[in-house]
Structure formats: structure tokens, C-alpha cells
Amino acid sequence: MKKLIAATFAAAALTILGAGSALAAGDCGTPLVSDDELSANFPFGFIVNGNSSDNCDAVADDLGGKQVAIPTGTYGVFRVDSRVSSVGQNSATRLDVNYDGDIRSHTFLSANPFDPDADFSPVLVTDYFATGEVSGVPLVFEANFALDQTGTIDPALVGTLESMDIFAAWTTLGSQQDALSDVGQQQAGLITHLDATISLLTSGNLSLEGDNELSVLGAVGSSTLGVHARYNLADGFSLLGGASLVDFEMPGASTSGMIGAGAVRYIQPGGGDMRYFGEAGVNAGAMTFSFTREYDIGLGFTHEATGSGTGMLLGAYGRGGVIWTPDEANEIVFSTTLKQTLFNIDSYTEVDPNGDPNFFAADLSGNSVAYTTLKAGADWTTDLAPDVDLTLSGALGATFGNGGVSAEVFGLPDAVTGEAGSTIFAEYGARLGWTPSPQTRLDGFITGTTGTGIGSHAQVGLAYNLTF
Question: How confident is the model at residue 114 (pLDDT cuts 50, 70, 90)?
């Protein structure tokens, strides 16, 4: 209430003096420019009363010669934080911020002045203005700020632009391309690490041949909970498939959602020591993603931007090789796998925290990148005892992107494209199975990958298998 009385008294005094604002129209006052010249504060009280309007020009250039400006040869963005209060019952104040013809309007309605608990604190609004590429001389911030109370009839009701802060940042096309290349590397890492999890859904850590079975599995490391099944058809054919919930993190990125996979496998019939096999399959996942990128914002400073979105992983693969069975207790498989994965992002936004502004926010919505994975591996399954078996697996491979990661970046006129990621990786796994009865088996397993530029990932889990 004290603030309401003070503001009303100030408005009345200004009316008596014949002024419509605390500062003369046309001048927003002298700013306080920071030593690094990246920000400026206009600490004034610019007031309009009911049924009136006024405006002032702000230039972020103080009397000491300091200025907030975007350097030549860069892409710039100005952030404007305005604090506006509207005092008096049924008072409405509109603020227009006009930067080079780009006008942002905000309307504020006052709280009820007869409510003793009403909050009269000024409302903070933020606007971003892109300069485009600066050429010639550095570009100093200049804008017009207008307050309008013409919709409020009572002249005793006031609207106040209490202060404003101007922040500047600039970047280069190369910095933004590098930042999106970081996202491409993270995508390659997610695909490579998740491939080990997806293979569990098509019996990837089991003996190549086995009974019909249905399994429930769970793992930690990246959280996994799912089912998989194997069904044998005639003449060496079998169907494999499963689905799982996943929740996975790696340096700079994370993903969670539902993944399903299915495959058909053919093993050459007969009892020879060496036989051929082939397998073809697909997988699909409805996922949420999060990525982190880092870009320059001027004077050696960088910003780490984090975003999230939704999308799909769609994959298809072919696998082939030979099975060597030196005796009834051992099976050794040598194989190569070629897989194509489409990483599709439907919608995506980056966060903009007040304490660490994201001047050049990127929107990856609609971006799709294809990644190719090629690996060669070996799997050895042996019977340690009549009711205990062991499978050890290892593979070497590479994942590489085709095309690039594109995004609309605020402040840059055209879409920016970074390189799709790539990695050389090693994959490993071990499974120990115990068969307490002819129809059941309990497996403990570990599986993981490690690669260049993508870190390491490991899962430890259990599976309960029912044969039929």
C-alpha cells in the first residue's frame, strides 16, 4: 500500500509540474556500462499516468566512452530485460520495445490495490533482438522504449518502466557449426551404446541355436526393463524379437523411451562342424533426447546450451557369418554386421536460464541424420557343467554419420549445419546361465561399449527364461 500511495503522489506531482514522465521525453538517461562492455543498466523511473503515453531513446554508450556494441564480422544478439510495474485498480500499461523497427509489445495489469497482500513488485520481461552479420563499424545498441496508459482513464493511475538491462553477445558461423558437430558426435554415441542394448532383444548374448523361449530381462547402468522371445520355424529358420524401456546417459547427452526389435535368422541345416548363417532385422524406438553444445558468445566467453526433444530411432541391419562347433559343448560364431540407423528429431527446444542466457538458441526440430554401423565380432558359448553355460562376446566396429546435423539458430539468417559424428568402438559382453529345470534358465549378464569421443557404457542385468 505504501508503494501505491508513493506512486500516486509521484504521478500527481508530475502532473502539476507539467511532465508526463520522470525523464524528459526522447532521452532514457545515461546508462551504467560494465567494464567488459557486455552489458549496461538504465536505472531510471520512467513514469506515465492514466490516459497518457510517452517514450524515450536508449543508447548503450555512456559518458566515460564505454559502449555495448557488436564487433564487425560477427553475428550479434542484444538481450533486453525490462522491469515494469502498473499501479492502481484497473490500471493497464503497455510497453513497446522498438529495436530497428522490430517492435515487441507487453501489456501489464495491476494487482488489486485494496488487497493488503497484493504484490506490487515490477514484472521482468525479456526480449532478444538479432543484429544479423555486422559489417563496417561495431554496432552500438540503440532502441526506443514507449509506455502507454491511454487505456487507463484515471490520471492518478500510473505505469512505470523502473529499469532496464542490455546484454550483448556475438558469435561466428564456425563456432555454431562446431557446436552442432558436438550434437552429431553425441548422436553417434547414443546409437553405438544403445546397439548393445537392442541386441539383447534379438537374443544377441545367447547361443545362436536354442529352444523356443520367452524371457524377461532387466539391467542397470542404463536402466532397461523388457522382454524377448525366440521361436523356431522349420528348416533352420527362427524368429527373434522383443521390446524394452530404456533410460540412458552418456557425456553430454541422454535418451529414454521404448525400443522394439525383430529379426529372422537362418542357420544352415546339417551336423557339420562349419555352417553358415544369416540374419536380418529391424528396430524402432519412440524416444526423448537431450543434447549439450558449447558456442562462443564474445570476449573469450562460451555458453553451454542444453536442449531436449522427442523423436524416433529407426534401424535395419544384416548379419552373417559362420558357426564352428568343435564339439557338443562348444559353439564359436564369427560374424559381421552392417546396420543403418535413422536418427530423427520431431521437436526440440533449448533452455534459456535467466542467470546464464542462451543468446543463440538452436532448434533441431525436423532434423534427420543417417548413421552407418559396421562391426566384426566373435561369440563363444560353452557348457561349464550340465546345468551351467557361459557366453563370451567381443566385437570391433565403427559408426559414422551420413550428412550433417542442421538447426535454425537464433541470430543467424540461414540454417546452420554441423558434421555428423563418428566413432571407432569396441563392444564386449558376458553371460552366465543356470538351468535349474528343463523349462527354466536364469541368466546374469554384462554388456558394454567404449569408443573414441563417446566414452564408455556398461550394463549389468538378469534375465529369466522360460522354454517351451
Answer: low
